[in-house]
Amino acid sequence: MSQLKDKGYAIYDYMDSLYYDGIEKDYEEILNYFENLPIDDYAPELNRYRRYSRALVLPTSGDIEWLPDVKRDGAEYAAYFQGKFNPEHPGSYREFHSIDSHIRDNKLLKKIIMANYEETFWGEEDKIMPIHVGVHFVKLMVDNDEDKAVSSPDCLHQDGEPFTFAHLIERKNVKGGTNAIGIPGVRGSQPDEVDQKDLHEIFEISKPLESYGVDDSAVSHYVGPVMKGSEEGAAVRSVILIDYQLTVVADMDE
Ligand SMILES: [Fe+2]
Predict the structure, then answer these.
(1) Using an 8 Å Cβ cutoff, are 56 and 133 in contact?
(2) Under a CB-based contact definition with an 8 Å cutoff, are residues 98 and 109 in contact?
(3) What element of type H or E holds 116?
(4) What molecular function does GO assign, one term (predicted)?
(5) N or C: which end of the chain has fewer CB within 10 A?
(6) 143: helix, coil or strand?
């Protein structure tokens, strides 16, 4: 049984397990792309930058098919349904700047999407429909000693999508950005407020492509605020978050 299935979460080192000739070059392309992520329009005061695109994984062929964007004022956007578990944006639609097509075609990104997909598990009858994949590029960046960049939501939580994976792209001069995994019952709390026996693990991902994944219904998860470390220059923590969910079909009886 996989660790994800057994424990509800798993930690990975994809730079090692996905290694192929040219992985460094593909990683560099993604890393450079994070340099100029646009500010998150929904949280400009929180030092958060982001892009987002959606894709389908076709269960029979294993192909990735990117969904089309919405054009608005000359920019390309992808729509995102937040789901019901984010207390800061309950049940709302949001639109994000989309990921450019040359990055969508990055071999490493595709390998990561498929490696995560292969970790997910579904009922046999669910796999006749494509699996929906949401790919978020998220950068938290802090310039001043007194500031901090906060993930959303800023507490132990569940995402609402059945599976979510986080992949570290860069961690530079960061204090904080610590991950915690807990039982579902502690969602809504800070890790230091809860009974420590209700936390499975507290850890940091620090190397490129160190990653973790959660079976959302089995655990709650948390990432702490990012603050500046003791070195010169801004604190930067960049991750790719990828969520996996079923195609939702209308109820025939309604
Ligand atoms: Fe989350």
Answers:
(1) yes
(2) no
(3) helix 107-119
(4) dioxygenase activity
(5) C
(6) coil
Over residues 52-105, the pLDDT tens digits come to: 999 999 988 889 999 988 888 888 888 766 555 556 665 567 788 999 999 999
CA of 118 to the centre of ligand 1 (A): 20
DSSP, collapsed to helix, strand or coil, labels residue 136 as strand
Burial class (CB in 10 A: 0-12, 13-18, 19+), 145: exposed
Task: Determine which helix (DSSP H) or strand (DSSP E) holds 104, and give its type and residue range.
Answer: helix 101-104
Which residues make up the environment of ion ligand 1, defined by Cβ < 5 Å? 159
Q: How far is the CA of 253 from the centre of ligand 1 (A)?
A: 33
CA distance 154 to 225: 8
Cβ(160)–Cβ(216) below 8 Å = yes
The torsion defined by the Cα of 17, 23, 27 and 30, in degrees rounded to 10, comes to: -110
Indicate the domain borders of the chain: 3-246
Answer yes or no: pTM beyond 0.85.
Answer: yes
How far is Cα 13 from Cα 29, in angstroms, rounded to an integer? 19
Judge whether 38 and 241 are in contact, CB under 8 Å. no
> Cα separation of 169 and 136, whole Å?
12
Residue 226 sits at the vertex; the CA angle it makes with 223 and 231, to the nearest 5 degrees, is: 140
3-246 CATH: 2.60.120.620
Distance 82 CA to ligand 1 centre (A): 11
